[in-house]
Amino acid sequence: MSSAPLLGSRAPDGNGGVTTGPAAAAADGQERRPPRGGTGCSSWLGRVVDTEEAWAQLQFAVPMILTNMAYYGIPLVSVMFSGHLGGVQLAGATLGNSWATVTGYALVTGMSGGLETLCGQAYGARLYRMLGMYLQSSLILSAAVSALVAVLWAFTESLLLLLRQDPEVSRSAAAFVGPQVPGLFAFAFLQCLLRYLQTQSVVAPLVVCSAAPFALHVGLTHLMVNVLGLGLAGASAAISATFWISCLMLLAYVMRSEAFAETWKGFSAEALSYVLPTAKLAAPSAVMVCLEIWAFELLVLVAGLLPNSTVSTSLIAMCSSTEAIAFMTTYGFSAAVSTRVSNEVGAGNVDTAKNAVTTTLKLSVLLGVSFVLLLAFGHDLWASLFSGSAVIVSEFAAITPLMIISIVLDSAQGVLSGVSRGCGWQHLAALTNLVAYYLVAMPLAILFAFKLKFYTKGLWMGLICGLACQACSLVVITARTKWSTKIAEAMQEEKAHYVA
Fold first, then answer.
1. For residues 221 and 78, is the Cβ–Cβ distance under 8 A?
2. CA 113/CA 281 separation, integer angstroms
């Protein structure tokens, strides 16, 4: 069976240019695989890693990293502007942003994860029209989930008070969360569009449609907070406006570009029949993402119960933020391997998919080592960006060796999670996360921190144990599962019944 052209594949368009994606596949109808050998492989680097595959993945990963950082920065900018309104407003915006992430944004991000499997494998198998059907079904699911979250957000203040948060801060947090309800829908749709484009290896427009709105967001937030004096509500409303601008930009690009003529045929009622298959992968994807994010947030809450809770909470929050920033880079490679694996498995090129996994794991180790070196030599400077307290800077230096271990493990598991999404193993990854974080990491973190009195170090030691369990489990799943027969053959069976 011939494979579809994937990352970096191109074919002549007959007009002196090149064609990519479905058009390229139709143009040649021949098997295409990433080139091997050449001068790159004769060098020492070529013997360590498949340089052609690595270069293709780098070209994919870097735009995804930039896109993710831009979207991460949009609410962060609003929190920063809120901080200039006063201490209570800063605390409220920080708490509100955390609440919105945990209860809403993380959930809808996870819900779109099913598209990495469905669209990726359909694209690899050349079931191009299916991408549009899966996209629409995912949009329907995302809208439904966003509506439920919007109801939950209406009770933000009451729920935060129930969690024993400060009343005034809870009120400010609710004021920050409320105006983001329209933005939640936009962000949910954005994630679906992003996955749809990602699985076709279309990543450059994602940078444009995230970086440009981010730049606009800075000016818009300044206008609403400092010029119009709308306070927390203005900072929050700016997030919603920016997400909708980005969403409409991407939607317009998809609907107007001829590159998606075969994968986007317009809105159709037929998409309703694909809602259930999409939900079967979207639900475990959401659980998989949320369990991990909730674990880090839970660590911050537990840190508040330690002696000298002000320092402990600040320190664990700094560690969590550092881990999150490091993971943004890993996310780019996670998205790359997810796309490579799903495309190649859908095309029946299982050996090529396995090679992509091996290459990405090597890149992730290289990436982890680079970040570790930066942290090892610049931890004092990095800590000083968060706090001017000499005590906190000193404590962060003491916990840095543990941070280094966790970042390396997190890089490995992040890539392997991408493999899980590409292969459709979200249910296994979700179960792994449940065991790793809540049956291993949390109990050990509490034991080390309170019983053995390692305090903040103990919390992070427990997390490391969970990350190690998670990474090892995903390695075993990836190595031992016979995905060549279970997944590739299932996709070929679906292809046999496919009607264009």
1. yes
2. 8
CA-CA distance, 177 to 104, in Å (whole number)? Answer: 10
Residue 398 has a CB neighbour count (10 Å cut-off) of 12
pLDDT tens-digit profile of 12-55?
Answer: 343 333 344 444 444 444 344 444 444 444 466 667 677 888 88
Does the pTM of the predicted model rise above 0.85? no
Q: Are 217 and 242 in contact (CB under 8 A)?
A: yes
Angle of helix 51-83 versus helix 350-386 axis, rounded to 10: 30
Is 233 exposed, middle or buried (CB count within 10 Å of its CB: 0-12, 13-18, 19+)?
A: middle
Structure tokens at 22: 């479905």
Q: Which residues pair with 18 in a beta bridge?
A: 12
End-to-end CA distance of the chain: 18
User: Rounded to an integer, what distance in angstroms lies between the CA atom of residue 478 and that of residue 423?
Assistant: 10
What is the Cα–Cα distance from 153 to 181, expressed in whole angstroms?
A: 8
**Cα separation of 295 and 410, whole Å?**
13
pLDDT tens-digit series, residues 454-488: 989 999 999 999 999 999 998 888 887 665 555 55
DSSP string, 396-461: HHHHHHHHHHHHHHHHHHHHHHHHHHHHT-HHHHHHHHHIIIIIIIHHHHHIIIIIS--HHHHHHH
Both structure tokens of 110: 């996870």
